[in-house]
Amino acid sequence: MIVMKTHTNDLTPVSWFLFRDGKILTQIIHTDTSSICTATPQQLEMQPTFSRYIGSYNKTTYFVAELPQSTQAPQGMEFRSIRSLFGSVDDTLFTLIGRAIQILHWNNEYKFCGKCGAAMEDKNNEFAKQCPSCGLISYPRISPAVIMSVLRDKHILLARSPHFPKDMYSTLAGFVEPGETLEEAVKREIFEESSIEVDNIEYVASQPWPFPHSLMIGFSATYAGGDIQIDDREIEDAGWFTVHNLPKLPSKISIARLLIDNFIENSSK
């Protein structure tokens, strides 16, 4: 469990996540294996351009720091994308790393007041920036998105986006629009991308997804009518799959895979 506080205990062990250009500093263990470097910037003789406390996990206090673009990885270390860490770090730790990159993105994107244009200042007691001129408070952006499994008898609807890895299919997903309920977003996204109508929409789980600041809200739904006609601006293929002919699937760390695994488990009953 990640714990958020407004202060830290000086006796608590401290670890750091060090980023450069959106990539995190890791220690190389073997040729194809690495672990997160949690040394302080001072220990590595680095001078961050931004740093922030982000939370506690397993009795350890964590900070995030952004390093200048010119920073070189020390001997035996490398900067890696957080996507490359899928499956190699504990899920809760990955969530904390995701929070770190979202805080960095927010810091870089919201330096000036959206109301009067003055430079924003950090608030010390919460994740927020405040304008010293007009008082506007800005919080880190979170973009809600729905992601859903669509079930039809012993089949699940899966689709392929052009930016997916080769041969991989996943569940449909999309961002929630202003004035829209989550259930309305589920119906709209499924119909827009596949022309399929659904009912029996049920909440399953949610997951923060730091690419760059999404909150994925997972649902299941059942087929209510229509034939697949894809929106080729969003996806390049879609179809009904059984447990016996599933394509390449998303990583276990994603909520999409949870939805698909639930389908697989229920199909065997």
Give the N-terminus to C-terminus distance in angstroms.
32 Å
| Shape designation | globular
Q: Strand fraction band? A: 25-35%
CATH architecture of the largest domain: Alpha-Beta Complex
CATH topology of the largest domain: Nucleoside Triphosphate Pyrophosphohydrolase
Name of the CATH class of the largest domain: Alpha Beta
**How many domain units?**
3
Could you tell me the number of beta strands? 15
> Which homologous superfamily in CATH is the superfamily of the largest domain?
Nucleoside Triphosphate Pyrophosphohydrolase
Report the total helices: 3
Helix amount: 10-25%
Please provide a brief summary of the model:
With 269 residues, the chain is an alpha+beta fold. 17% of the residues lie in helices and 35% in strands.
Please characterize this protein's 3D structure.
This protein has three helices and 15 strands. It has three domains: 14-109, Alpha-Beta Complex (Nucleoside Triphosphate Pyrophosphohydrolase), CATH 3.90.79; 110-140, no CATH class; 143-267, Nucleoside Triphosphate Pyrophosphohydrolase, CATH 3.90.79.10. It has helices spanning 91-109, 182-194, 255-267; strands at residues 14-20, 23-30, 33-36, 50-57, 60-66, 77-80, 121-122, 129-130, 137-138, 143-152, 155-160, 172-175, 197-209, 214-225, 237-241. The chain has 269 residues and is of the alpha+beta class. Residues 1-8 have low confidence and may be disordered. Strands 1, 2, 3, 4, 5 and 6 form a six-stranded mixed β-sheet that branches. Strands 10, 11, 12, 13, 14 and 15 form a six-stranded mixed β-sheet that branches. A three-stranded antiparallel β-sheet has the order 7-8-9, with no helix packed on it.
